[in-house]
């Protein structure tokens, strides 16, 4: 029984890894956000928070929103006002 549970756990973990896109992360200047990645093809944005292990994945984020985020003087403020809660991730 333990072997079956272990086997099924490995299958679940491997299938999750196989479907998770690998998106290169770029450090940003922010006290709130450590790094960000964006995949143009899937419109997926990944945000790694500063001072924690939290990483959020947002789907269907338009390229223009990502571009505006990267150009924002305050990345944390832009994130809270324009991304958080609007594209999933939480």
Oligomer: single chain
Work out the number of β strands. Answer: 4
End-to-end separation in angstroms reads 35 Å
Domain count, please report it.
1
Low-confidence parts lasting 5 or more residues at pLDDT below 50? 15-19
Largest sheet, described in full? 4 strands, antiparallel
Order of helices and strands: HEEEEHH
Radius of gyration: 16 Å
Question: Mean pLDDT score, rounded?
Answer: 85
Share in helix: 25-40%
What is the 3D shape? globular
Q: Which strands sit side by side, in order, in the main sheet?
A: 1-2-3-4
- The structural class is alpha+beta
Indicate the proportion of strand residues.
15-25%
Specify the number of helices.
3
């Amino acid at each position: 029984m333990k072997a079956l549970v272990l086997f099924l756990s490995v299958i679940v973990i491997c299938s999750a890894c196989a479907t998770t896109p690998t998106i290169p992360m770029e450090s940003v200047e922010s006290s709130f956000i450590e790094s960000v990645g964006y995949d143009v093809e899937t419109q997926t944005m990944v945000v790694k928070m500063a001072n924690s292990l939290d990483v959020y994945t947002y789907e269907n984020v338009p390229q223009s929103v990502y571009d505006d985020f990267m150009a924002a003087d305050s990345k944390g403020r832009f994130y809270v006002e324009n991304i958080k809660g609007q594209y999933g991730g939480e």
